[in-house]
Amino acid sequence: MTDPTLSALDLPAFNPGCVWLVGAGPGDPGLLTLLALHALRQADHIVYDALVDDRILGLANPAAVKEFAGKRGGRPSPAQEDISLRLVELGRQGLRVLRLKAGDPFVFGRGGEEALALVAAGLPFRVVPGITAGLAGPAYAGIPATHRTANQAVILVTGQSAGDGPDWAALAATRAPLILYMAWRGLGGIAQALQDGGLPPDTAVAVICDATTPRQRVLTSTLGACARDLGASDLAPPAIIVIGAIAELRGTLNWLGVADA
Ligand SMILES: C[S@@+](CC[C@H](N)C(=O)[O-])C[C@H]1O[C@@H](n2cnc3c(N)ncnc32)[C@H](O)[C@@H]1O
């Protein structure tokens, strides 16, 4: 599918037998990169994740096969090894394979594992970064990831981990704001561990659900109360959780104008 606007940009060719690992961004199709749109228009086969917005899939070449590879309805997601093998298999068939992942493929997206499998198989690949939910979500909630008078560093961290998990006391000791992915279920324990590590219970918290989509909702709270407040709310994941003084800026910078949940 040729798009005159994209053709004028002299973007790289999506060659048969090549796999592109592409970030779909956090949800709002307006946050898609031009390279991601180019890939969607060219791909023969798209392997996509659960959090990829339907409006973005709708931009794909109508002839492309769309294969779901995420978690849905509480059913277990396909094993990562199987997804990587599938990408290799499709690439070996000489297809233009688009692996479409929410946010950025290399930020808590397991894109590195897929890239390693492609290297091992000797298949050519390209990585197209996307805007990660951990930065776009706060921005759409009126929360700058860094603010000169508030922080000189910011930490992106997972609330779910294959190993022992993050050292919450060490993270608390940095006093840098934390931006949490996949922390919905663990929030109570994480909030307690951060307080045990020295963060005051009145530290600001913002929980940003369905960030950048028309369904976006935000709950503001404190470290001491956030687990209880979230439990009492009707909110649901996916969510990005911001912990630290930057979250207070939402009070004045809520440019989207949607009131707190
Ligand atoms: C497996 S991680 C994928 C992260 C993704 N690679 C990125 O860069 O945004 C899934 C987690 O990302 C976060 N997430 C992704 N999209 C989101 C959205 N639109 N709103 C809120 N959180 C989102 C949630 O914390 C979710 O549990």
TrEMBL record:
What Pfam family does this protein match (any one)? TP_methylase
The organism sits in which domain of life?
Answer: Bacteria
Where does the UniProt annotation place the signal sequence? Answer: none
Q: Name one GO biological process term.
A: siroheme biosynthetic process
Q: Which InterPro entries match?
A: 4pyrrol_Mease, 4pyrrol_Methylase_sf, 4pyrrole_Mease_sub1, 4pyrrole_Mease_sub2, CobA/CysG_C, Siro_Cobalamin_biosynth, Uropor_MeTrfase_CS
Residues forming the Tetrapyrrole methylase domain are 19-224
PANTHER family linked to this entry? S-ADENOSYL-L-METHIONINE-DEPENDENT UROPORPHYRINOGEN III METHYLTRANSFERASE, CHLOROPLASTIC, SIROHEME SYNTHASE-RELATED
Q: What is this protein called?
A: uroporphyrinogen-III C-methyltransferase
Its keywords, alphabetically, are:
Methyltransferase, Porphyrin biosynthesis, S-adenosyl-L-methionine, Transferase
The record's section on PROSITE patterns has:
SUMT_2
Uppermost EC category: transferase
Please name the Gene3D superfamilies in this protein's record. Answer: Cobalt-precorrin-4 Transmethylase, Domain 1 (3.40.1010.10), Methyltransferase, Cobalt-precorrin-4 Transmethylase, Domain 2 (3.30.950.10)
Pathway(s) per entry: Porphyrin-containing compound metabolism; siroheme biosynthesis; precorrin-2 from uroporphyrinogen III: step 1/1
